[in-house]
Amino acid sequence: MNEKTYKTMTTAGAGNIAIGIVMLVSGITCGVIAIINGAKMLKRKSDIIF
Question: What domain count does the chain have?
């Protein structure tokens, strides 16, 4: 009984770590893309006519 619980907890822990890594990488990627796009918009600010 204890071995089954231990294996379940190990699998859940490993899954949580994997999901955390994926979320961290995707968050950093989205942040970098947002910074790059913001810099491009600021650079071409003078080209915008309203």
Answer: 1
